[in-house]
Amino acid sequence: MGAYEVGRLIFDLRKDEHLAEEFRANRDGVLERYRLTQEEKKAIRNKDVKFIYQLGVNPYLIIGAGGCLGLSRVELILALADAGPHPTERTTTYPGPSPAVTEQLKKMAAGAGPAHPSQMKPSGGRRTT
Fold first, then answer.
1. Residue 54 domain flag
2. pTM of the entire structure?
């Protein structure tokens, strides 16, 4: 049914350890309790972070749900690096992460970049404060 319902599932999985345990044991049973389309259920089963992000689910929920979905931090970073702009950003002129940021995220995931995004050097002459 969209970003709200998928986001609600992810939020519930993060906050309710019993539900998270049940989800790991009986994913389909838990998915049936939420008003999700077949495509959304498939995306969750397949750990399709890019689809979930492009649906409009809050990226902070997605990042925090890696463990519940069975994804490593590296898998999450790589999926989000290639996901493009978030749907809410399409209402502005924000083009999504710059290619330099995307490349830094990929390096981080491979263990070759800074350990945390705050250690990334600004690109394109932009000032950060």
1. yes
2. 0.69
Is residue 108, in this structure, part of any structural domain at all? no
Number of structural domains in the chain:
1
**E strand or H helix at 10, and its extent?**
helix 3-15
Check: CB of residue 60 under 8 Å from CB of residue 10. Answer: no
Percentage with pLDDT > 90 across the chain: 37
CATH number of the domain bearing residue 8: 1.10.700.10
Close Cβ partners of 50 (under 8 Å, ≥ 6 residues apart): 79, 80, 82, 83
Task: Tell me if 97 sits within 8 A of 81, measured CB to CB.
Answer: yes
Q: Print the domain residue range for 33.
A: 3-72
Instruction: Give CA angle at 43 (49, 38), nearest 5°.
Output: 155
Q: Are 22 and 15 in contact (CB under 8 A)?
A: no
Res 76: pLDDT: 83
